Amino acid sequence: MTPEQALAGVYARSDRMVGRRVADEYILVPIVGRGANLDSIFNLSRVAAFIWESIDGRRDGYAIIEAVTSRFEVDRRQAEDDYCHFLEQLVTIEAVFPAHRPRE
Amino acid sequence: MWKSKSPLVLVHRWLLDGEPPRPGDSLEAQAIVAVASGQGVAGLLQDAVRSGPDWPAEVREGLVHHRRASLVAGVQRLDLAARVLNLLDRKGLRALPLKGAALAESLYDSVADRPMADVDVLVLDDAVGARTLLREHGFAELGWADHAVSFADPLGGGVVELHRDLTSCPGLFPLDREGLWARSRTSSAQVPKVPSPEDLFVQLSLHAAFQHGLVLSLVQYLDFRRLFTRMQLDPRRVAAIAAASCAEVPVAAALRAAEAVVGARPPEALAERFRSRLPLALARWLEGRLGDPLSLVTPAPPALARVRWGLVPGRRVELVRRSIFVAGEGAAEPAARRALVAFARASHLVRRWALPACRSWFGARPPSSGPAATPEGKRLEGPPPLGPEARIAEAILADCLHSFPHVRLTVTGECMGPALRPGDTVLVAEPALRPPRFGDVVLFRHPEGLRLHRLVWAPPLAGAGSAWRTKGDRSPRWDPHISSGDVLGTVIAVEGRESVPGFSTALRSLAQALVASARDRLAAPARA
Prior knowledge:
Chain A contains four helices and five strands, in the order αββββαααβ. Chain A is α+β, with helices and mostly antiparallel strands. Chain A has one domain: Alpha-Beta Complex (Outer Surface Protein A, domain 3). Chain B is an alpha+beta fold. Chain B has a domain at about 370-525: Umud Fragment, subunit A (Ribbon). Helices cover about 45% and strands about 15% of the residues of chain B.
């Protein structure tokens, strides 16, 4: 996935992964598969948790970056790089999927 | 002083006085952790001993791992509850989470601190429609009791129990469905709605007293204490809800037990309202146990029939009637079928409850369990037959297995390690629901009491009518022969584990027993 595709794409969260804030941390827990496999849970930073919650099947990457930069003190270029990297990871673990085609 | 106490006593003392146990060595620390885990308080223990110098680093690390696993399992369970509730809601069926799923988020700082083996959902509308809906969405029906049906989650493999009533004998404690729904609160956490604190309290009391005969795990008793300290209960509303559901005696009994076991002190106005509601006979029986609060904590056997009898003064005929005649879910059942079910339940009650109780109360000698067989098949005099108390405990357990989709038991010995460790909680289903097969771990009648061992000679290897063989995984020899009728239940899952090793372990175990048997035969002439 190129950075342009990641930013232009609209993604939705998979029902098979649930995000949960616990005290001062945010974890992603897979629902599929029996038992509690600790190797398959993910700890998210505050920014990553914000991005995860912003992936709603309606907003594209540009809109999410906009929200990130207005919420956190982060350089836009840095936010884009982090977003693309994080999205790629989420796609790899099938935590998100494309909601519809990226805009042309 | 600490070292002379059992791990359960140490864990209990910690919950009462707030002072974490101070283990003498790593082994004792591990034993305490195993008990805390079995009692559902390992997460709280991890918090309490986070920086305790008396705790070995490796045990503290294990506790951290355990809490993490419990957190993940809790999130998964709550997600299951949320999915089921949303599914029902989309179909226009009102439902609310019960017990652990309702408590974990409102009374505990983390879902890791309130473990739950399954999730319970109370359906307020069409129970038959809800059951059908879950089936249509791929949930596999595991079993049913008179007040609930359990399903396996097609996604995560968790278990959800769909309740049409709070307790067995549906209708004995009338459920104000409209009021329950009207009083429920919106939740900002994973489950969308939870019952009001007052409803939660009455539900917990009914569950503790009627379903469990006042014998609960420590975390279940802690629910009461947390409810009193973390929620504002309106005593008048509690009294009204309890009166409407005929639950005043169960509430009074649960209040008394929770205070004795974990020091759960209700607001004075609430205690005052229920203080005089305990019938004299039940109060006397309860007082006799409060001197040893651990007699009200699992794995102590509950006096379920005795407690149920005491909970419904003036309505005992109704208790018996509702125990025998199971109300249908709405669809009219043929009279003949209802009569057959009623006859089966009545004979079951007589066999399982009345006869052992009569033997116990009138001091009659129980029938001998018969001679035990040696591994070589010789008949020898077995150990003394089980006493009346053990027989009643067995009868109660058998009745629970018959009445519920599964029963949770805590493993106490080490003979099944590493597959089952002390403190592990296993889910056991009766043979009718899950027929035992070669390799299964089963709960069976042993000359010295009930055992959880592995079947190493059973169908499909053993032919019809032939004797079965069981064996502890770590034991070199097998147990005396048993018949299929000696098996009370089959282990269907171990909490917190993906699976229990079965077939290959059983093959190894069988080979080990055969070698040991051959050695014994060879050694016998030499000794002679």
